[in-house]
Amino acid sequence: MKAYLYVGIGGAVGSLLRYFVSFITLYFFGNAFPYGTVAVNLLGAFLLGWFTSHILYQTNPSLATGIGTGMIGSFTTLSTLSVDVLFLWENDAIMALLLYVTISMIGGLFFAYAGLKIGQKQVDS
């Protein structure tokens, strides 16, 4: 039961952080490109990679679920990425769409890998 509570609290924190990052990027960069979604997904990929290798095995399993599934899971967003892609498609912004998908996919893998490796180095040292 404790895990459910941690997931709920983590989910609330992650969604608020996502809203904050999206609001800040919208304010500074406008809405011509989905900068906020790119930012939260790349940062989330890094954090989940780091968390998986560095923290997961050193903390309470319920807390780990709350952070990984709850907070980071609600911080990142595949559904918004999907809607952004459709929006760019419908507005004939094909180059922006291709750039967005490329950054999201390749960047996400890179950031997750970087987080994983940095976390492993911290554990090993």
From TrEMBL:
Membrane topology annotation: Multi-pass membrane protein
GO BP of this protein: cellular detoxification of fluoride
Locations listed in the record: Cell membrane
Listed transmembrane segments: 7-29, 35-57, 69-89, 95-116
Regulation of protein activity: Na(+) is not transported, but it plays an essential structural role and its presence is essential for fluoride channel function.
GO molecular function: fluoride channel activity; metal ion binding
Binding site for Na(+): 73, 76
InterPro entries per record: FluC
Gene Ontology annotations for the cellular component aspect, listed alphabetically: plasma membrane
UniProt name for this protein: Fluoride-specific ion channel FluC
Keyword Transport among UniProt keywords: yes
Job description of the protein: Fluoride-specific ion channel. Important for reducing fluoride concentration in the cell, thus reducing its toxicity.
A Pfam family reported for this protein in Swiss-Prot or TrEMBL: CRCB
The family this protein is said to belong to: Belongs to the fluoride channel Fluc/FEX (TC 1.A.43) family.
Main location: membrane
Catalyzed chemical reaction(s): fluoride(in) = fluoride(out)
Keywords for the protein's UniProt record, in alphabetical order: Cell membrane, Ion channel, Ion transport, Membrane, Metal-binding, Sodium, Transmembrane, Transmembrane helix, Transport
